[in-house]
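User: Here's a structure from my thesis project, written as structure tokens. My advisor, Dr. K., wants to see whether a designed sequence matches the one we expressed. Can you design one independently, without my sequence as a hint?
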């Protein structure tokens, strides 16, 4: 009689393989992940640390987001460097006391800046381009135990409960860090990303859509007074270099109201409004859609300030402005059937600026695919390719 063998099939957590990279590796902080989760991090015994000083280069057009984090005592004492309104902000927690200070030059100008963070006695100092920007003093009656335990460092997120911070902010950072020298350590950083996104050599302001996702807004945010005052959407960019759906609009339970699509092969832009379809083959870099009660006006302008205006009657879309109250506006994709935010024909290209009702549209406030860069485009896209 043979033996029976019982195989255990108990569930277990999948093991996440981490990739090691050099601390000097360029890191695109906008890479897809949970919004507060660091993109790269490192853990080291404090006994190996001989200099509390980190230096790195940083570049962004984004006015707000997480940059650099560090902690000891398993997160009891921690440090956070972020941007808010483009200005550096440090939050520091030590022995239960949390301080926050903001100041220095605006860093969201798209240029590389040299940032240095150091701990000198009871002071934490931030230098920007070799000039002091922020100095924070922290007195303590506790024992100096910094040389025991471990120190954790992270880029693009935090390792603590975000409720501990006294200044809340949007963590997504469309920016890059490179040439880092972290404390005096040579140990590699770790990341769960299979491959790190590139930091392009040259960037320009705008929102970049790589052809893999889009951003969706609830139109009620813009259309509270639309029935009386109308709705105006303006887009800047080189339309002849785009491919895919630039914009679409849809109300719940109704057919697609509007779609604006570009074809990089024909260099044509097609506007579909209800049953009307308009082909616009001319090259232009600003497009305004002006929704009024009985018609849709389309204004196109080029670099020579030449303008062309089209008017489309809305007879087949009665009271369409009112239907937008609970509708959806998609930037970079075609809204699908039903109530799902299912998109297709995603946009590949750069939108230099988007305004609704005369105000800049912040894609970080949308439900968007993480591949969409809210504030920067690779400058190579202007040449029709990305190196």
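Assistant: Designed independently from the structure alone:
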């Amino acid at each position: 009689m043979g033996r029976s063998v019982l195989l255990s099939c108990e569930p277990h957590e999948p093991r996440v393989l981490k990739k090691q990279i050099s601390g000097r590796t360029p890191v695109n902080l906008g890479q897809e992940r949970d919004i507060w989760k660091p993109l790269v991090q490192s853990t080291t015994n404090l006994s190996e640390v001989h200099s509390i000083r980190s230096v790195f280069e940083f570049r962004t057009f984004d006015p707000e987001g997480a940059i650099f984090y560090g902690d000891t005592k398993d997160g009891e004492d921690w440090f956070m460097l972020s941007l808010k309104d483009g200005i550096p902000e440090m939050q520091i927690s030590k022995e239960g006391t949390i301080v926050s200070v903001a100041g220095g030059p605006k860093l969201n100008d798209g240029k590389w800046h040299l940032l240095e963070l150091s701990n000198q006695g009871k002071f934490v100092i931030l230098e920007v381009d070799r000039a002091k920007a922020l100095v924070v003093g922290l007195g303590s009656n506790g024992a100096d135990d910094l040389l025991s335990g471990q120190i954790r460092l992270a880029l693009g997120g935090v390792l603590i409960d975000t409720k501990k911070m006294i200044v809340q902010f949007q963590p997504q950072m469309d920016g890059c860090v490179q040439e880092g020298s972290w404390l005096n350590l040579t140990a590699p950083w770790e990341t769960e990303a299979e491959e790190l996104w590139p930091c392009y050599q040259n960037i320009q302001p705008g929102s970049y859509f790589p052809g893999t996702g889009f951003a969706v807004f609830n139109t009620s945010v813009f259309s509270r007074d639309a029935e009386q005052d109308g709705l105006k959407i303006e887009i800047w960019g080189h339309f002849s270099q785009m491919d895919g759906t630039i914009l679409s609009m849809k109300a719940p339970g109704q057919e697609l109201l509007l779609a604006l699509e570009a074809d990089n092969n024909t260099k044509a832009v097609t506007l579909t409004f209800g049953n009307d379809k308009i082909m616009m083959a001319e090259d232009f870099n600003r497009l305004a859609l002006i929704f009024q009660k009985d018609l849709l006006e389309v204004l196109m302008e080029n670099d020579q300030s030449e303008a062309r205006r089209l008017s489309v009657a809305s007879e087949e879309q009665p009271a369409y402005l009112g239907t937008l109250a609970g509708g959806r506006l998609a930037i970079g994709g075609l809204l699908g059937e039903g109530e799902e935010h299912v998109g297709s024909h995603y946009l590949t290209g750069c939108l230099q600026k988007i305004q609704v009702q005369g105000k800049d549209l912040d894609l970080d406030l949308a439900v968007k695919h993480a591949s969409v860069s809210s504030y920067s485009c690779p400058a190579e896209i202007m040449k029709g390719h990305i190196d």
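When you compare it with your expressed construct, this may help: The CA atoms of residues 42 and 189 lie 5 Å apart.
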